Amino acid sequence: MKTDEIINHVSAIFKREIKAYFGSPVAYVFIAIFLLLIGFFTFNISHFFEMGQADLRAFFEWHPWLYMFLVPAVAMRLWAEELRMGTIELVLTFPITPGEVIFGKFLAAWAFIGVALALTFPMVITVMYLGEPDLGPIVSGYIGSFLMAGAFLSVGSMTSALTRSQVISFILSLFICLFFILAGFPPVTAILADWAPRWLIDIVSNLSFLSHFVSMQRGVLDLRDILYFCSVICFMLFANGIILQQRRA
Amino acid sequence: MIEVKNLSKSFGPKQAVNRISFRVQKGEILGFLGPNGAGKSTSMRMITGFIPPSDGTAVIGGHDILTAPVDARRKIGYLPENAPVYPDMTVYGYLDFCAQIRGFAGSERLQRVKETIERCFLTGVEHQTVNTLSKGFKQRVCFAQSILHDPEYLILDEPTDGLDPNQKHEVRLMIRKMSAEKAIILSTHILDEVDAVCTRAIIIANGSIVADDTPEKLRARSSVHGAVSVTLGAAAADAFTACARAVPGIRQIELLETSGEALKARVFPEDADPLVAERLVTALAAADFEVKSLFVEQGRLDDVFRAITTS
Q1: What 8-state DSSP symbol labels residue B292?
Q2: Fold of B2-220
Q3: Where in chain B is the domain with CATH 3.40.50.300?
Q4: A94, B82: Cβ pair inside 8 Å?
């Protein structure tokens, strides 16, 4: 009975948010830009065709960088808009818990990004037409990419609750996402390697989305990586809840 | 019953609401009055659990808003100030969303939403998005949301704000009709509204309750309550004063206007004695004054309001 209620509440919020996404032109602009950019980077920068390899490494390696810009743009309206319009007052006085609202909103935005990601399917078709790729890394790459998008999104959702300005939310989230990427970016870790102790470098680079995504791109679905992304999501959404509570006090 | 106990809220050093306590029973419509910034909205937000109080609590139908917020909110219908409604949703879509959140499903949900649309005079705009609606309609959509689940307790923050006089009248009628089986708190700064709908009024100033009474008794606190206002045709002020002084039981005579055409005056009795007016009429008639109008002042709420909230 209790679970039914939670599912009902989350699904009501989820449906409303999904409709809000697809009801506005921003959604289609976002999807178009995402697909254009991912195509551009894969084919023109990474030279997908010239490499002559039947895998999607050239495609997946750009995901973190694209997500860094685009996911905060999806997430920025989640709470900032509610705060600005005052609709948050009604949502949080409905007989539902803030956790249900946070989760419902997060799921809707995640599903939206999932749709954008799923629309990259022509890449898979292309690579399958051109050669005989190993499907394992492709599947695990997609799973990893989706999980990573969720982690980026949770950061964006959290920063969105901090401010009623979507622009500030976007910039803040971009900044945090940049940290999460750079912490494991080889050029950055190389700088650290000169003076920092080994264990510190390990901690920092293990915090990064990149190091956990890289192995998934290679076809390794390690439980630790999945747990990592899930715990980032949980942590950020939890922080989101605390921020909302603090804002009201 | 809504029971508000020692509710307090401070924002930094500013004490927005200071230990207010009251109870509202079913059948009562409590008017929450006060100047802007007195703490009305803050109090309502605390009662509905939107903002946590610094101290004290509110118990709604036996559920403490702090320890059992979901159960308490289930029983509340809340209309926040400025009627915030998602602008990108249609009226029907929005109410359907609210109905789902409130746990209605299937044909019951459909029925509820349709019924509410009719009750709130929203027929005809139900498929329009909210951002295309005028302020009055928006207000009614938000009001519809608050009564959708037929709550036992209604908390309305300025429910008639932005409505035209006809719509105001309709909303007040609706509130009165619903009041039999509900406890209603409504905030307003329109004093006529208190007279029109409320069975009890609380005046709050600087975060504290300064008066808690029925509108009639509040009016009786007015300095002019029980005074007799007289308008005469052209008459000499001295002659009138002399005549009125002769009537027993009169404490004071105040001349309001003494132009050539008319003489307006207010006569204060020693105590609220309804017979003073009658004796005055008799005296004036006997002295051949032309009495154009004469009535006993009921006292005006805005005078009382001003006196209480500015002192």
Answers
A1: E
A2: Rossmann fold (3.40.50)
A3: 2-220
A4: no
Cβ separation A93–B50 shorter than 8 A? yes
Q: Please state, in angstroms and rounded to a whole number, the distance separating the CA atoms of residues B207 and B21.
A: 11
Establish if A92 touches chain B: CB-CB under 8 angstroms: yes
Q: Measuring CA to CA, how many Å separate A199 from each of A138, A213, B135, B286, B288?
A: 32, 20, 61, 109, 109
- pLDDT reported for residue A1: 56
ipTM: 0.88
| Pairing state between β B228-233 and B291-296 | antiparallel
pLDDT at A121: 93
The string of pLDDT tens digits covering residues A6-25 is 999 999 999 999 999 998 88
- Residue ranges, CATH 3.30.70.3100, chain B: 228-298
Architecture of domain B228-298: 2-Layer Sandwich (3.30)
The mean pLDDT of B171-190, rounded to a whole number, is 89
CB within 8 Å: B101 and A92: no
Distance, in Å, from the CA atom of A230 to the CA atom of A232, rounded to the nearest integer, reads 5
Q: Please report, rounded to a whole number, the percentage of residues in chain B having pLDDT higher than 90.
A: 46
**Chain B residues in contact with A95 (beta carbon < 8 A):** 70-71, 73-74, 101-103
The domain containing residue A244 runs over which residues?
A: 2-248
